[in-house]
């Protein structure tokens, strides 16, 4: 048996050579066995960042990371494997609540969605932060509890666990402190390894671009979507990647519990912001088609509308919360679990006109300063603060009408956030053209 020397793998990638599947797998196994140091992981990720990885290398890394821990087996669960579909997003300002709306909606149509999410960092949020804001809900349940929740409710949204793709957590920790997070191959492997470990039969992932997203331009999003699709195809995972414009805030709210209220209101039919509704319905239709539950987008749309009207999507949300240890009456008594922030006040518009721009990045940073987001990964979130009722591009506003409602700890925090948000919203005399939310699409079936 040959001696394993991590430096040989690092040297080969440093020199721009292609790595073998066996070499990549042995390196990942070495991480789990303690044979690879953090310094060596950092050197490896920097070499990948600088020299890139071919799709075959990325696929090998993805599968090795998947196999570094448990892979959930849904055999015997009484579930049609074609219906085990996951949804993911590359992130954006206010985007995290989309999953909390979409997942119970498609579950009401017969989908089973085991969703392993992540915490938010910087101006973008994470679904797990919203789940953590629910009293009693477990974001790190046992594999059995996670599996049972999906069987009982059709959906479970949790955070990364030590059991599923643990090598990804070790590698991501080093990437975060060595300026290699932005590597497209490493992003691809990180996302897909966790999805494959959850035992899904398909994936629909929105790849977002614009000021509110991780990818600034359509070209950047297209590159990431192309990498994901190529590797998913090699890994045998059916996947669709809608490319989503996110120059403005998605939906009406930012902040953990404020977005939970927004998700409940959407599922209850009380308030459905148009761009977010369009995104939810588009991705949901893709999921139903992928599982074979709808023969056309028209059929999928009709099924989704029916579940919303019946209230079964809201009921699935409630069942998911309870299955993960949260309150059984959250939907009926959200106010008792989500107390208001100490200082809530509207931010008045300084002028009348049409909303021409809403800089989602600048607003996201203002929310980080308020406590609704993180500057570093170890920061604790203030689940009660944020904003609601944010205006959108094309809206008409009169002077003095609210641009949004700010939920803050104190008046001083309100003043700071108000100044930043006012500067981020441009109001003009002419109505701008409303742009579609989904502007492209890639698929493994193409």
UniProtKB/TrEMBL annotation:
UniProt subunit comment: Homodimer.
Sorted UniProt keywords: Glycosyltransferase, Transferase
Chemical reaction(s) catalysed: thymidine + phosphate = 2-deoxy-alpha-D-ribose 1-phosphate + thymine
InterPro entries found in the cross-reference section: Glycosyl_Trfase_fam3, Glycosyl_Trfase_fam3_N_dom, Glycosyl_Trfase_fam3_N_dom_sf, Nuc_phospho_transferase, PYNP-like_C_sf, PYNP_C, Pyrmidine_PPas_bac/euk, Thymidine/pyrmidine_PPase
SMART domains linked: PYNP_C
Record protein name field: thymidine phosphorylase
Family: Belongs to the thymidine/pyrimidine-nucleoside phosphorylase family.
PANTHER family: THYMIDINE PHOSPHORYLASE
Pfam family, one: Glycos_transf_3
EC number: 2.4.2.4
Occurrences of domain Pyrimidine nucleoside phosphorylase C-terminal (ranges): 354-428
Organism: Rhizobium sullae (Rhizobium hedysari)
UniProt GO MF annotations: 1,4-alpha-oligoglucan phosphorylase activity; thymidine phosphorylase activity
A GO biological process held by the record: pyrimidine nucleobase metabolic process
GO CC annotation: cytosol
SUPFAM superfamilies: Nucleoside phosphorylase/phosphoribosyltransferase catalytic domain, Nucleoside phosphorylase/phosphoribosyltransferase N-terminal domain, Pyrimidine nucleoside phosphorylase C-terminal domain
């Amino acid at each position: 048996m040959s001696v394993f020397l991590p430096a040989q793998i690092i040297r080969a990638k440093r020199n721009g050579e292609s790595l073998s599947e066996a070499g990549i797998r042995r390196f990942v196994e070495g991480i789990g066995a303690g044979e690879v140091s953090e310094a060596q992981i950092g050197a490896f990720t920097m070499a990948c960042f600088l020299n890139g990885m071919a799709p075959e290398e990325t696929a090998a890394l993805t599968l090795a990371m998947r196999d570094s821990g448990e892979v959930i087996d849904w055999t015997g669960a009484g579930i049609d494997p074609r219906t085990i579909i996951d949804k993911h997003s590359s992130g954006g300002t206010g985007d995290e609540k989309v999953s909390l709306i979409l997942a119970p909606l498609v579950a009401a149509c017969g989908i089973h969605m085991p969703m392993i999410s992540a915490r938010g960092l910087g101006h973008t949020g994470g679904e797990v932060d919203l789940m953590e804001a629910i009293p009693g809900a477990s974001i790190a349940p046992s594999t059995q509890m996670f599996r049972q929740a999906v069987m009982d409710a059709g959906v479970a949204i949790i955070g990364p666990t030590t059991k599923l793709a643990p090598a990804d957590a070790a590698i991501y920790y080093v990437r975060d402190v060595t300026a290699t997070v932005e590597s497209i191959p490493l992003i691809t492997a990180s996302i897909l390894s966790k999805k494959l470990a959850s035992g899904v039969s398909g994936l629909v992932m929105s790849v977002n671009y614009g000021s509110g997203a991780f990818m600034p331009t359509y070209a950047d999003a297209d590159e990431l979507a192309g990498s994901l699709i190529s590797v998913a195809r090699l890994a045998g995972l059916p996947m669709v990647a809608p490319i989503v414009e996110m120059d403005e805030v998605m939906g009406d709210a930012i902040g953990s519990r404020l977005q939970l209220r927004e998700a409940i209101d959407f599922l209850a039919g009380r308030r459905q912001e148009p761009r977010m509704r369009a995104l939810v319905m588009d991705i949901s239709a893709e999921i139903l088609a992928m599982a074979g539950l709808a023969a056309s987008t028209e059929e999928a749309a009709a099924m989704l509308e029916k579940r919303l009207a019946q209230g079964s999507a809201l009921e699935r949300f409630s069942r998911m919360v309870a299955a993960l240890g949260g309150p059984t009456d959250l939907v009926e008594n959200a106010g008792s679990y989500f107390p208001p922030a100490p200082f809530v006040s509207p931010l008045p518009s300084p002028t009348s006109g049409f909303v021409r721009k809403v800089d989602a990045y600048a607003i996201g940073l203002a929310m980080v300063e308020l406590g609704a987001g993180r500057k570093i990964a170890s920061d604790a979130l203030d689940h009660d603060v944020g904003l609601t009722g944010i205006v959108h591009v094309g809206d008409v506003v009169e002077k003095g009408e609210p641009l949004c409602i700010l939920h803050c700890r104190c008046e001083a925090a309100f003043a700071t956030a108000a100044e930043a948000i006012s500067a981020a919203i441009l109001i003009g005399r002419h109505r701008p053209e409303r742009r579609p939310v989904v502007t492209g699409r890639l698929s493994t079936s193409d």
